[in-house]
Amino acid sequence: MISEYAQPIRKGVIAAGLATALATVFTASIALGSQAVQPLESLQTLFGTGSETVYVIVSTVRLPRAVAALLGGAALGVSGAILQTLFRNPMADPYILGVSSGSVLAIGLALLAGPLLGLASYTPPSLYTAAFLGALTVTLMMMSLSGAVRSITTVLVVGVMIGYLSYAATSILMVLADIERIRAFTYWVLGSFSGSRWSLLTPAIPALAASIIFSTLLAKQLNALLLGEEYARSMGMHLGPVRVLAVATAAVPVSIVTTIAGPIGFIGLSAPYLARQLTQTSDHYTIIPFSALAGALLTATADLTARMLLRPAELPVTAVTALFGGPLVIYLLLKGRGVFH
Amino acid sequence: MIRADGVSAGYRGQRVVEDVMLHIEAGEFTAVIGPNASGKTTLLKTLAGLLKPLDGVVYIDGRRVPDMDVGELARSVGVVLTGDVRPGLLTVSDVVALGRYPYSGVMGRLKPADKAEVMSALEDVGIPHLADKPYNTLSDGQRQKVMIARALAQKPKALLLDEPVTYLDPRARVETLITLRRICRQRRIAVVASLHEVELALRLADRLLVVSAGHVDVYSSPEEFIEVGGPEELYEFKDDAGFCGETLTVEVRVKDPADFKVFVIAGAGRGAPVYRMLTRLNITFATGVLHEGDLDYVVAKSLSGDVIAEKAFHIIRPEKLEQAVVKAADADAVIYVSHPVGLVNAANTVLAEKLVVMGLPTIEYGDAGLKGCWRRVGSLKELADFLKQLEQSTAVRRGFVVV
Fold first, then answer.
1. Higher pLDDT, residue B106 or B238
2. A226–B87 CB contact, under 8 Å
């Protein structure tokens, strides 16, 4: 909003640094794997001049995965930034809305109910549909709730409750379902971008990009919300519609990311922290793009680490994000002035 | 500028104030006073359009508030609420610029005119030099000014503030209120602030809204309120405290009078600090002969001391002198406070000498050179120490009598 006071040069340097790091990680994601590809070659294949084998690996496996991690991470970062301000709560992240839990619950139910309804087998598309519908249902619930309740904290509590509900259902499912059936499900629940395919990404990419761009239109409202809802209203903000829009803008991309990669924790919590610490402002015109950059970088790095660290075994991405990102955020918080918003 | 027409304010099913009729003009500084939980905040929020009135209509600049959308309302009314805001890493000018919300477009971009408004608001509250400071590094007083500047950046016709100075130190309190009054005049806006600082409200406000027991009384000036004994009644002072209308101060009185009693001879304001000290030490006092209207008279009266008084500028009559002698004879000690003696109060010297002759333990405070006095003290501290000793020995003496 008032970039002239917020050291534009410093911000430019940080943005350039993040972008360079992101480009490096992105290239490495394409180049590294069970079959190593020279970075140059991997880029060549993208422009259609590389070898056939490399082209197949890169274009059908590594590229969609890298794109999903990058864009998904950006969306999670932005979503976290919106929710932390909306709820005036430093613990808020995309999880808190119960959107991911909705997905988990829906997939769990689909897996359990499938055989009961006489469906012999499940197909990946039907599970993805279930995941997306689950997330969307919770999103719509949260949107209508946020417009209706007096205190936004109610939404927060309901989101947490949905999370517990989903845990309960999932654990029951784990006990009841046969191991083979839930194996894929377990992997998805832990969070991984390994399932990213173009068929999923084609509709997801424009939706995620659109939601990130749209979130910058909420920056003015989110800035006003830094003073609390009552002040925001007194300065001319339509509280109800803004809440609903903010919840939608935060939840829809999370629904998409969860469908693709399962519930990915930590990114939505930490990316906004990193953005604020690096830029030393809480102005959302700065925080939203920087949360996107930080989220993308964190997620892409985590995904790369997850599949490279214990090759050929692949770790859940959330384990990596928390393992490496957790200490980083704690360090930044202790070093900084403990700024939560 | 602000008009309330039969407004009842409150929350669902709970009326806090009823049937409020008021009219506040532009350029007027209005203080809202009343006990805790009387409904000051509810009234302010209702006038600001943040709460819907249960009955009646609020008008801002002739426009019905229900007919205004939130944007128009925000361009008409600025508010400063109680409680801390934590805007994270925003700078002072970031926070003030939020006040341009109802003027900026979808992207919230500030035009040069907006930036000029931000700067002028910062100048009006006297903190342009803090523009680039992070908000969370400021003192409470500075933060409050930032929040006021932010409200001013909305270019409101009315500014409503809920207890804007409660958590500030005395210097910042006075400064903030003086700033508000100046802004109110300069910008020709109506400023309404709820205050617990009644003593300041009575000194600074043009009008008073007094909220108590579910209704709002409008006083066209603090004087009008004082004349009807308003402060005393409003805060339901019991016998342990009271409001002094002459000095506009709250005075604390002796609640459980001790057996130890003194008689003070003073005048021309010299006795006032002694009376206050005696009250604090829980020593009962009577005093005389004072002239009505003398500062000593005002203070002694407000401390509910026993005062023997003569009419202002009249020579003390023998019967008043006699009353003083009778009163003093009942005391455990006499304090003669050195004070200017002239034609009309020459009798006070006579009184002192008479009491000395009568054998009453007489302490002289100051350097009047009273003949035959028992003890002479040079400072209030010395006086206090001596009185404490005396009180103890008096108690012991009484003990013997009882045994």
1. B106
2. yes
